[in-house]
Amino acid sequence: MCARAELLRPPLRPPFGARGGSAGRGPGRAGGAAAAAIGWHYSTILLHPSPHPGLPERVVATGDGTVELARTRLSAQPGVWGLRGPAGLAVVGPVLDRRRRTVVRELRAGPVPATGPAVLDAGPFDPDPSARGLPFDDVRVPTDLGLAPAWRIPAPDGGDPDTWALCVHGRGGTRREALRILPALHAAGLTQLVVSYRGDGTAPESPDGRSHLGDTEWRDIDAAAAYALVHGARRLVLVGWSMGAAVGGAFLDRSPHADLVDAVVWDAPLLDWRRTLRRQARNRGLPPTLAAVAARFTARRIGIDLDRFDLVRSPPAVRPPTLVLHSDADTAVPVTLSRDLAATAPGHGWPVTYREFSGTEHTGSWNADPDGYEAAVTGFLRTLRPA
After folding, report:
1. pLDDT at 284
2. Residue 263 pairs with which residues in a beta bridge?
3. Pairing mode, strands 261-267 and 235-241
4. Can you give the pLDDT at residue 30?
5. Beta-strand relationship, 66-70 and 57-63
6. Tell me: the pLDDT tens digits for 281-329?
7. What is the pLDDT of residue 314?
8. How far, in Å, CA of 226 to CA of 164, rounded?
9. 258-285 burial string, b = 16+ CB within 10 Å, else e?
10. pLDDT score, position 346
11. Residue 104 in 3-state DSSP?
């Protein structure tokens, strides 16, 4: 799930004319039918993520090294962001001026945005690791569904070619999501494999054409681990964003390669589907009971046991040292999940280090403080594997 994935769009009008505040509470069969219809609708959204968030922001004007945007909660976020529009991907920096209806941000790089619709992008880099100054190879990972594309970035001179980081993007995202962190992993001396997985638009599709929320996607990460081992890896580091943590949690619980994982880095991790769905229901002005209805439909449609994806209460079988990074303003995946994991993990023999960032949306911790974020990652990894 990237920062502008569809579950982060503004609240939608419930389908079939039902209102969020009363759906599912109407009398008799009519209320039950409305609840079922809405639950089915949101289950369908969940199982068919869209990589196209639209263009919800608006560029009002540009100046000498600045861009003025219509003021919204998202356009006024702190930090460094991509701004994508008809002219391409630009990089915008911190807010320089907050006005009543607009914000003025620093324009750092890229084409001068055209006035009109645009979208803030958590990934300010395009299109591959070369945008971060890193050499890489396009490779193909054999999976049970076919070949899945990946980027392979070699360890730096003097690094550790035996330890490979497997980078796993979130729901509705792509491998671009990893571009922000690649230099930090490179500085930590790791070989990197930035993977794709079924249903993300580049890897082979699931046979039923649906997302399985991590319940089958982990097999593609297992295939990536096998690829890494064939090509010289002896140890693994799991890195994941949002649903990438759900995929990684399933890998740690089920993969025969899980014991090779030395460390985990998770950004805004989706640690419990049910609590996340309840948060999404609130975002849309829907009662929490409809999140439960959507969860039941989802479990039936793809055969998933959602209890296995409550990593706070049911941690995976293998629990390596884990760094969790999360922003306190995340409205997509509750930050309380990460706080709860940090509090309860020691009781499960799971060494978890937690770092919280301020003021940005889902997976926006790097954007809020790139230097602090990268220092946290490299410091954590070097503590585990000191030079």
Report:
1. 83
2. 237
3. parallel
4. 62
5. antiparallel
6. 888 888 889 999 999 999 999 999 999 999 999 999 999 999 999 999 9
7. 96
8. 11
9. bebbebbbbbbbbbbbbbbbbbbbbbbe
10. 97
11. strand
Cis (ω within 30 of 0) for the bond into 15? Answer: no
Burial class, 127, CB count within 10 angstroms (exposed 0-12 / middle 13-18 / buried 19+): exposed
Q: How many CA atoms lie within 13 A of 157 on its CB side?
A: 0
Report the alpha-carbon distance of residue 89 to residue 71 in Å, rounded. 20
List of residues 6+ apart from 45 with CB closer than 8 A: 6, 7
User: Which tokens sit at 206?
Assistant: 């699931």
In this predicted structure, what is the pLDDT of residue 54? Answer: 84
| Helix, strand and coil in the chain, % to nearest 5 | 35, 25, 40
CB count, 10 Å around CB of 156?
16
> What residues in the chain have per-residue pLDDT under 70?
1-30, 385-387
- Who contacts 341 (Cβ-Cβ below 8 Å, separation ≥6)? 269, 271, 311, 312, 324, 352, 354
3-state secondary structure 289-309: HHHHHHHHHHHHHHCCCHHHH
Distance separating alpha carbons of residues 80 and 93, to the nearest angstrom: 4
Closest CA to 167 of 188, 158, 344: 188
Would you say 261 and 288 are in contact if contact means Cβ atoms under 8 Å apart?
no
Pairing of strands 88-98, 352-357: unpaired
User: In angstroms, rounded to a whole number, what is the distance separating the alpha carbons of residues 149 and 378?
Assistant: 26
Extract the tokens encoding 123.
């990934």
pLDDT on residue 25: 47
Side-chain-facing half-sphere of 245: CA atoms under 13 Å: 30
Sequence letter at residue 383: T
What is the value of pTM for the model shown?
A: 0.92
For residue 232, give both structure tokens: 């010289």
> How many beta carbons lie within 10 A of that of residue 40, not counting itself?
15
d(CA 336, CA 288): 17
pLDDT at 23: 45
* Degrees to nearest 5, angle at CA 181 with 179 and 185: 120
Nearest-angstrom CA–CA distance, 158 and 247: 31
Coil/strand/helix, residue 150: strand
